[in-house]
Write a structure and sequence with these properties.
Layout: E1 7-11, H1 18-27, E2 31-33, E3 36-38, E4 42-46, H2 57-69, E5 73-75, H3 79-88, H4 105-117, H5 122-134, E6 138-140, E7 144-147, H6 153-162, H7 170-175, H8 182-192, E8 194-197, E9 204-205, E10 211-212, E11 214-217, H9 239-242, H10 248-253, E12 263-266, E13 282-284, E14 286-287, E15 294-300, E16 311-315
Parallel strand pairs: 1-4, 4-5, 7-12, 12-13
Antiparallel strand pairs: 1-15, 2-3, 6-7, 8-11, 9-10, 14-15, 15-16
């Protein structure tokens, strides 16, 4: 899938910020030729979540899709592309659901911007749904790896036995509606990451106004002592929870991505501040672009440890208004 003679520009969650993506590509030396953004020596690798929330979803999809079709990019699936597929797929009998992605007001709200922008382009949307189905869930290039939210070898290795290139079929997406099934665990872990229930019956309110009893966790912390040591999301834990000692049972359930494993790049986590490695073999490239943060890339060559000087970004301007 990857050309060893090229360098790679790994790009985080776009969420419909097409103009910012164009500015980022231009900053990195890409030029639009024949309707496709190209670089003479490099290739773009997108970490998923091209759709939803932002004002130019359709433009962003055409840009990324056309680069992929022209051999100028690869793109993996994000949880928002999975959500779009699941919205239309009926769940199997016995799953307790009608659709893989239930038609709740919250789920509809997350997809609303995308639906609105394709109202006059139903054929386009049908084609993109077919393309989402072809997106791999991960890329393993040997000295580096890409996954939208979390690398879990205990799931990825058996997944490879069925789908060597990480591209799953429609039946696998449908099977993910069954709680606890292998397909369900794959999508939840790889595209949404790891989480933990808040202690003391506490809840959080997300940035979108929804209450949550769980919080997103790190999947690399080697010896956490408190709940605060493992949180990995924009919202801080309540002080009373963050200071609590982490029980051994919770600590033992944490996933470990070892410091000696290949470089891993993820999106998904809505980071803030100046882009930087989390550690020498791990970086998140999602810096809240659609919330007027940064659209971030990492310019990867032959290094085996992440170089803090190779992050590049554009600040998303207010507003990136629709046409």
């Amino acid at each position: 899938m990857l050309d060893p003679a090229r360098g790679y520009d790994l790009i985080g969650d776009i969420h419909g910020c097409a103009r910012s993506l164009e500015r980022l590509l231009e900053q990195m030396g890409y030029h639009r030729q024949g309707g496709v953004w190209r670089h003479p020596q490099r290739m773009a690798l997108f970490l998923g979540d091209i759709i939803d929330r932002g004002p130019r979803v359709r433009e962003a999809l055409h840009l990324v899709h056309d680069m992929v079709e022209a051999g100028q990019a690869l793109c993996i699936m994000g949880n928002h592309e999975y959500n779009a597929l699941g919205w239309y797929l009926e769940a199997p009998p016995g799953s307790g659901r009608q659709f893989v992605r239930e038609h709740t007001p919250r789920h509809e709200r997350l997809l609303q911007q995308t639906f609105q922008q394709f109202e006059q382009h139903p054929g386009d949307w049908h084609d993109f749904l077919g393309w989402f189905q072809q997106l791999p869930l991960f890329i393993d290039a040997g000295h580096f790896r890409l996954v939208h939210a979390c690398w879990d070898s205990e799931l990825i290795e058996p997944l490879r036995q069925r789908f060597a290139d990480g591209r799953v079929d429609r039946d696998f997406v449908t099977a993910s509606a069954v709680p606890g099934s292998f397909a369900n665990r794959v999508f939840e872990r790889l595209l949404r990451g790891t989480d933990m229930r808040l202690p003391l019956g506490l809840t959080l309110t997300s940035e979108e106004g929804y209450p949550r009893a769980h919080f997103r966790t790190k999947f690399w912390e080697e010896d956490p002592q408190t709940y605060g040591d493992v949180v990995f999301q924009p919202e801080a834990l309540p002080d009373e929870a963050a200071r609590l000692p982490l029980p051994d049972g919770e600590k033992n359930r944490l996933l470990q991505y070892g410091a000696d494993e290949p470089m891993l790049f993820v999106g998904h986590y809505w980071r803030r501040g100046e882009p930087a490695p989390i550690r020498a073999n791990l970086a998140c490239l999602d810096y809240s672009a659609v919330m007027y943060g940064k659209l971030v890339a990492y310019r990867l060559d032959n290094e085996t440890r992440i170089d803090p000087d190779k992050f590049v970004w554009v600040v998303v301007e207010r507003p990136e208004a629709p046409q």
